[in-house]
Amino acid sequence: MSIWWSLHLRREAASVPLARRLLIGTMETAGVDPDISYDLSVALSEACANAVEHGGDAARGGTSEAYRVTAYLDGEKCRIEVADSGPGFARALDIRPARAEAEDGRGLWLIRELADHVHIGAKPGRGGTVVSFDKILKWKKDPSLLTA
User: Fold this and answer.
1) Cβ neighbours around 35 below 10 Å, total
2) Pairing mode, if any, of strands 77-83 and 2-10?
3) Selection from 102, 132, 140, 136 nearest residue 116 by Cα
4) CA-based Rg of the chain, rounded to a whole angstrom?
5) Burial class of residue 55 in the structure, from the number of CB atoms within 10 Å of its CB (0-12 exposed, 13-18 middle, 19+ buried)
6) 23: closest CA among 75, 81, 65?
7) What is the per-residue DSSP string for the chain?
8) Which of 16, 47, 100, 139 yields a CA-CA distance of 20 to 30 A from 108?
9) Segment 39-65, tens digit of pLDDT
């Protein structure tokens, strides 16, 4: 089975749960194990929150209005990409766990812990960042799509 979707979302906090719910609904319908769905939905929430907070276009004063989320469920793997128009990263990332008392800085570390493979890089062309991650899927015994 192959399912994919792509969303263009406003850089607003309300967009994060919208993307998360769409991903959870897609995976539930496809019959993905709930634990895998949960891990991917948390990782997606973190990537979206980063795009909302940091994904503005520096050349326009950080006011880029949108970011893109694309999810692919293909065979035994789910790949998710979150792309923004922010300033990107000036240097290589050294992703470490945040200090326990830190209010932020945990997002990329959590994504790396919850996914099987993570790539963070510059968006080709206009600048920005793409956070891409994937996870091998496990399936429920009785998926909704097969019983409909």
Assistant:
1) 9
2) unpaired
3) 136
4) 16
5) buried
6) 81
7) -EEEEEEEEESSTTHHHHHHHHHHHHHHHHTB-HHHHHHHHHHHHHHHHHHHHH-S-GGGTS---EEEEEEEEETTEEEEEEE--S---SS-----PPPTT-SS--HHHHHHHHSSEEEEEEPTTT--EEEEEEEE--B-SS-HHHH-
8) 139
9) 999 999 999 999 999 887 655 554 568
How far apart (Å, rounded) are the C-alpha atoms in residues 50 and 84?
9
Is the pLDDT score of 130 beyond 90?
yes
Residues 45, 121: Cα–Cα separation, whole Å: 18
Query: Percent of the chain beyond pLDDT 70?
Result: 77
Joined together, the tokens standing for residue 130 give 């793409």
Closest C-alpha among 9, 5, 50 to residue 23: 5
- Written as six digits, the tokens of 2 are 């192959």
pLDDT of residue 74: 92
